[in-house]
UniProtKB/TrEMBL annotation, chains A, B:
Natural source organism: Kingdonia uniflora
Keyword Flavoprotein set for record: yes
Cofactor: FAD
Protein name: Acyl-coenzyme A oxidase
UniProt-annotated catalytic positions: 364
Residue ranges constituting the Acyl-CoA oxidase C-terminal domain according to the UniProt record: 420-596
Length: 604, 604
């Protein structure tokens, strides 16, 4: 399997150079190949890392090589003992002024690098994160470019142990990727292979903080997480496309007068589970587009040395990464269950889609840890209310906090819930009230840290509420723009309302508990939601066809565009290697003696 | 892999006969082998089916052979086109009075049997469900014992096509099981191989309903679903055991004065996700024990021709099957995520535990379809209120419906939520009010069927509320019994309260919307829950150690009893076949040409 992945990666790269594709076109091509490979990390993480943290000088040396694939790299941060806590990494890089080198070392078992994709077998180089020990002092963790394998024969360089970490979830998924383990035994590298944009070590062994602010790291993070949100929309739209099409093909029960049975998509229970997922795929696409804009905005500001929006941008991308990946992982599995038995077959495409997707909840920040960052940011925002500090970006609505703490929703009948203003106000009121309430509770505790630790999980709910508000408001903003295509805007309006009211129903408890809406209004929202589902139903197939996936890309017998599920599922069975022989291997050794009651005498 | 499974199954059987194990001991042994095999269906479904539906006479012929494993059987019900709707199966069994035989046939592609475990390769016989066509009339679906493979050389008998259906989710899991496809081309079997307990076809070709009531089927279902609930408790306790132990080993952040970092189990977010799952594993164990009692009770009543409790028993086991399997599947995946990165390694044991478990949401009744049955039963119960019909079993509390619709919880401070009466009343009020409200809404619709279809998904929520009430009340009942062991009862009391208050918080919206509790009371419940988590924390490890799993059985490096995670995780990597060579297979063909920029000239 791994060899086959290598073949595909080489093929892709050959195409890229042959057709002289641009960076963006190349990334499209890799998208369509749709199999994880070491090259993903090379493009997705390694290059952005050098771009963000290297110096101009460094970039001039490494980037062209990387772009031409003359070296293959991985992003080697996580260790056996440390993932989330990057500052706790144990790999050391000790500066030796005599030779002008850093000595890379793995002092403990838990300091072994563990997980980096592409590290196990393919990479020639890695960006390795290690603690800088300079003149006996610990200057914290930084990236280093380290050559790992020889250019001659691809064997590990002296002092380096490298291997694959072994079987992961699924039978395909990340098993096509050589996530690796790496240990250093006093490996020397030239000083200038430290990434020195943010701080430098001089020839004389002096540690110098550069005037480039640390926040620059955040720029890279915003970039990477923005792509993760875009991927969430992509993965969820694939899953809902499969489940929706199959739900229209599958019929079960309800035949009248020997007519055909009911399409399962016509059952309200199926709709109630499926439609919110379809709608969420759209919502995530729009919030992803907005994040792309945000990244451009942040980059431009950084270039102009304006860091004012960075903390907010950082918190909101962290939160959206967490929200979108968690819900997308669940959505894929829910889609699989909505296909019931046949969804459990690999040929449905859903099992591997799930397995390959689900680590997005873990890498680039464990989702819970990320929500805690958002929560901290929100608590800080609340504590600064009234201090005159300007509220930017997604927290701007907190400027109206007085209003939001007191307002009563003016929804009086179900249709009132179709008004964007009504929806926005309810979501803003819920989020603001939760933030203020928890900030108040925390302030009652002996210390802020203690309070935060004690109320951890409640503030996490606040962070989720804030992120949902962002997604809802960006969906609403999107609809204010001109949208081409006849009737498209009306359809999207329905989707937007479903998204909001579905969330409102799901988190009814919070809306009620904060008094953002009344019991009566909650019940009206459920009524309106039911009406909206009925409106969306006739267009369900069109909505998922609009994602425009080819059958080849979807890779699902259940999700075929032509709906020819059964005639294609049946012959698939015969591709199973067990069917190469009629009588299974092992019959004579095991089955026959059992049937013939001869087990006692047989050696097994 | 499949061959290895055959080997283990033969081994297990050899042990069983050698040691002359009883039926119960044998089932324990198969439990510890803990790998799916064709034999599971043989014991779990085939034998109960003949026991339940065969005639005495039949049983005398088939059961001893089955018990001695002189034939291997599968339970062949599901077809390509029909799973949930058993009455829609298309395989036909046409009676031919001339030869006193049934002719088994697969008239359409969708009539192909599809999914039966053990069918693909191992089974010699199957209980095949088919429509009986007798004298031109369709008498509905019934089971037939059909020989599939020859005893001589295990090749399919004439007219029979049988094969494995191919790759399923996961790399192990159900891939050790030969789920199969089966087609009949006019295969003749003797008349007496129809299972005839409930109805018969005479020599003359007369269809006769026996006086044994159809409800007998339900008895078998109660049995099978009862074992599924017991398995849910087993699977969830395995998962929480792994995640809890690893959470105590894993440290991340929070180091003070260079001391060790914080154990992640001490983070409230981790506790908030983990502890409810631990507690649920206990709750399911107790409700499982109760279901076992229920099955015995039902069986005794059946023998005495008392069918009065059967509908209620059937509904409540259906609901509990659905509730426990859905939440257990989610719990396993949640546990995996709580182990973050390392949970994604197969050596964590969690990926395969999830994959092998998750079809329990689908087989023996799709979980949504089952909830609809419960909902129908509840709506019927409500409609009969006041008619004098006796309310039995878990619906008995509906006898106090007047009270439950009006009562106000008397909880005034957080500790009041520790009182079993307060908890019970809140859960009963919520369930009863939801049932009554939806029954009323349905009755407003033009027809009951339409109303039911329209409000489908809301009544499903009602069914869940009812099932949660059952689990909570059985937990409380359990605690009324004497429980041996010093301090054990006090611990279980904490778990019971956590379970109830966790559910109450999670479904806060419903408790508030029905007015079962007030806003203030909801907030007190959350406060009390926080206190309970803190009380449970010091005993977390003891609580999962109490499940008493050996390391071998757990099969998880992260869940080791001795906590030696890292020294065992590290060497595991070297078992990966990719590590057999230092330079990966494919280097010369693909990696090297890419690095040396020679791709243009290379043929891939
Ligand atoms: C498929 C895959 C690919 C990967 N690729 C790469 C790669 O290319 N390069 C690389 O360097 N790494 C890679 N990783 C590693 C990944 O980045 C880490 O797994 C991730 O950062 C999470 O860290 P962890 O696993 O140490 O989790 P931990 O931090 O150990 O988390 C364990 C549990 O503790 C909780 N927790 C931790 N800290 C706190 C806190 N402060 N408060 C509350 N709760 C807390 C978490 O929520 C979680 O439930 C990959 C991982 C996977 C699964
Ligand atoms: C691992 C595994 C092992 C199995 N082993 C066996 C075996 O040994 N023998 C055997 O005979 N079968 C076996 N099965 C098949 C299993 O019993 C069926 O998959 C199951 O009964 C569900 O039926 P289905 O797949 O046809 O789902 P469907 O009924 O097609 O369900 C599809 C969707 O429609 C919805 N739906 C269906 N009807 C309704 C309704 N009336 N109202 C609302 N929604 C509805 C469902 O909720 C679901 O979301 C196995 C399946 C698996 C996955
Ligand atoms: Ca797998």
């Amino acid at each position: 399997m791994y060899k086959n992945t290598l073949r595909k990666a080489a093929h892709t790269w050959k195409r890229i150079i042959k057709l002289r594709l641009s960076e963006q076109e190349a990334s499209m091509l890799r998208f369509y190949v749709d199999e994880l490979a070491f090259t993903d990390l090379h493009w997705g993480m390694f290059i952005p890392a050098i771009k963000g943290q290297g110096m101009e000088q460094r970039q001039q040396k490494w980037l062209p090589l990387a772009y031409k694939m003359q070296l293959i790299r991985c992003y080697a941060q996580t260790e056996l003992g440390h993932g989330s806590n990057v500052q706790g990494l144990e790999t050391t890089a000790t500066f030796d002024p005599k030779s002008d080198e850093f000595i890379m070392n793995s002092p403990t078992l838990t300091s072994s690098k563990w997980w980096p994709g592409g590290l196990g077998k393919a990479s020639t180089h890695g960006v390795v994160y290690a603690r800088r020990l300079v003149d006996g002092k610990d200057h914290g963790v930084n990236g280093f470019i380290v050559q790992l394998q020889s250019f001659d024969d691809h064997s590990p360089l002296p002092g380096i142990t490298v291997a694959d970490i072994g079987m992961k979830f699924g039978n395909g998924a990340y098993n096509t990727m050589d996530n690796g383990v790496l240990r250093f035994d006093h490996v020397r590298i030239p000083r200038d292979q430290m990434l020195m944009r943010v701080s430098q070590v001089t020839r004389e062994g002096k540690y110098v903080q550069s005037d480039v602010p640390r926040q620059l790291f955040y720029g890279t993070m915003v970039y990477v997480r923005q792509t993760i949100v875009a991927n969430a929309s992509c993965a969820s739209s694939r899953a809902v496309c499969i489940a929706t099409r199959y739900s229209a093909v599958r019929r079960q029960f309800g035949s009248q007068d020997d007519g055909p049975e009911t399409q399962v998509i016509d059952y309200k229970t199926q709709q109630n589970k499926l439609f919110p997922l379809v709608v969420t795929a759209y919502a995530y696409r729009f919030v992803g587009e907005w994040l792309k804009w945000l990244y451009t905005d942040v980059t431009q500001r950084l270039q102009a040395n304006d860091f004012s929006t960075l903390p907010e941008a950082h918190a909101c991308t962290a939160g959206l990464k967490s929200l979108t990946t968690s819900t997308t992982a669940d959505a894929i599995e829910e889609c699989r269950k909505l296909c019931s038995g046949h969804g459990y077959l690999c040929s449905s495409g859903l099992p591997e889609l799930f397995v390959v997707y689900v680590p997005a909840c873990t890498y680039e920040g464990d989702n819970v840890v990320l929500l805690l960052q958002v929560a901290r940011f929100l608590m800080k925002t609340v504590s600064q209310l009234g201090s005159g500090k300007q509220l930017v970006g997604t927290t701007a609505c907190m400027g109206r906090v007085e209003h939001l703490l007191q307002c009563c929703s003016d929804v009086q009948q179900a249709e009132d819930w179709l008004k964007p203003t009504a929806i926005l106000e309810a979501f803003e009121a819920r989020a603001a009230r939760m933030s203020v309430a928890y900030a108040r509770n925390i302030s009652k505790m002996p210390s802020q840290e203690e309070g935060f630790a004690e109320l951890f999980s409640d503030v996490v709910e606040t962070a989720v509420a804030h992120c949902q508000l962002i997604v809802v408001s960006k969906f609403i903003e999107k609809l204010k723009q001109g949208i081409p295509g006849k009737g498209v805007k009306e359809q999207l309006q329905i989707l937007c309302n479903i998204y909001a009211l579905f969330l409102l129903h799901k988190h009814q408890g919070e809306f009620l508990a904060t008094g953002a809406i009344t019991l009566k209004q909650a019940s009206l929202a459920s009524d309106q939601l039911r009406v909206l589902y009925a409106q969306a139903c006739p267009n369900a197939i069109a909505l998922v066809d609009a994602f425009n996936y080819t059958d080849h890309y979807l890779g699902s017998v259940l999700g075929r565009y032509d709906g020819n599920v059964y005639p294609n599922l049946y012959p698939k069975a015969w591709e199973e290697p067990l069917n190469d022989t009629v009588v299974p291997d092992g019959y004579h050794e095991y089955i026959r003696p059992m049937l013939k009651q001869q087990l006692r005498t047989v050696r097994l």
